[in-house]
Amino acid sequence: MLLPFYFKRVSENRYLVSNLLRQFQFVDRAQFDKLCAGNFDRELKNFFAAESELDSVAEEYRRLNAGLFYGATLHIFVLTLACNLNCLYCQAEYSRGGKPFMSAETARRAVEVALSSPEDELHFEFQGGEPLLNFDALKTIVECANELRGDKVVKFSLVTNAQAMTDEILSYLAAHDVQITFSIDGPKFIHDANRPTKDGSSNFDRVFHWFKRACDVYAEKNFIRALPTTTRLSLSHAKEIVDFYCALDVADISLRELSPFGRVGKNFDAIGYTPQEFLNFYRECMDYIIALNLSGKTNLTESLSKMILQKIFGRHVVNYPDLRSPCGATIGQIAYNWNGDIYTCDEGRMLANRGIENFRVGNVRENSYRECLLSAAACEVCNASCVESNPSCESCIYNPICGLCPVYSFFTQGDFVGVPIRQARCKILRGIYDYLIEWSNCEDTARKNLCERWGTEP
Ligand code: SF4
Ligand code: SF4
Ligand code: SF4
Predict the structure, then answer these.
(1) What is the pLDDT of residues 322-343, one digit of tens each?
(2) Distance from the CA of 13 to the center of ligand 3, in angstroms?
(3) Which of 80, 83, 185, 261 to mutate to test the pocket of ligand 1 (most atoms within 8 A of CB)?
(4) Alpha carbon separation from 232 to 244, 268, 289, 313 (Å, rounded)
(5) What is the DSSP string of 66-81?
(6) What residue ranges do the domains of the chain occupy?
(7) Phi/psi at 340 (nearest 5 deg)?
(8) Could you tell me if 119 and 155 are in contact, meaning their C-beta atoms sit under 8 angstroms apart?
(9) What is this structure's pTM?
């Protein structure tokens, strides 16, 4: 029996086909015609099943998507919207009055809601503004979580610009196994252009100093990461950025495009780019990272590409909240804003800074974890994020590995569902998928093996 499949014509005599079990295969025109006619071909066995095998195919589909049945594992605590930098793409702009700092009482209640998730292992992430400007709330959350967690495991992480870091803070973070991600946009001239201080001066030396210091203090623990944001200035410096990250000796780099929330709209002429310009940058970085890996100079990986390859090659659950269907909003991750309001995710909470409250699912003083999950906003976002029911996506070859973002759709197109095919997000994702599928089918054995390694190793 022929199983459901997706296809895309790549050239005159070449088609790419995929199935719901995330298996991709290139076929020629004759094979494609055979597949469409439902005629079995041994080389296309992944696309057929005997009647007696249907239960095991369904079981495999369920197993690969088991992440959908987990509770929320990622809990994001927005400790403050205040910041000591003035980044051109900042998403934390706040103009609604009051002091945007999480109180100890709000922090404790947020921990109680987060610990109500049925999951045994939770990840608490500290975000801002600059979270270290409210270090007291961070300590309250760590200590409260350790006091109340029972048998649950709680892992902590912090995303920081490091301007308020001190030796005392770093010692506390290390003593409590808090992973640290430093926001560094690459070499000094790029970082300082993107991320000026309020008076316009450089902060690169400071963040670089604390990155190095953290690597020393954390010794062998692989708890220190660095995260760049790609702006127009980055586009012509792909190799320098990759070299910079190799020199930092971090495990991976994340080639993130600019998120449209926050100041990007206002500064688009200075820092923005088209999806194709970003994809050219992505391809140049990836070609270079692969070449450096093959020459033995680095083991650096690119985090999004690795995660997508794990979906294609790995036969295990890959539960990345933004690329699953439905997405992880509320059911996979939750964000607690400084004032106690609870949102579907960090991006949903970012829109609240602009007075858009469509992604608010509750408040730590008024609602339980269960009430947040059952809120109208959570259910609506969940429905809207299903690739299976979106007209843009229902016939897309990448449907089995993709996911929709209702926050993005709402912000850029005015409703939760949107028309993904017209979104920059979709164009970029399609370009990345194309690159990775090409890489996984290249003729060069060493290159192909590296691709498989990224897709199968943890
Ligand atoms: S460090 Fe973060 S919060 Fe601060 S200005 Fe930059 S992007 Fe905004
Ligand atoms: S968002 Fe774009 S790439 Fe993803 S499934 Fe939909 S059409 Fe395909
Ligand atoms: S709404 Fe968007 S940002 Fe939020 S979890 Fe879903 S995909 Fe991620």
Answers:
(1) 999 999 999 999 999 999 999 9
(2) 38
(3) 83
(4) 18, 9, 20, 33
(5) GGGGS---EEEEE-BS
(6) 1-64
(7) 100, -10
(8) no
(9) 0.96
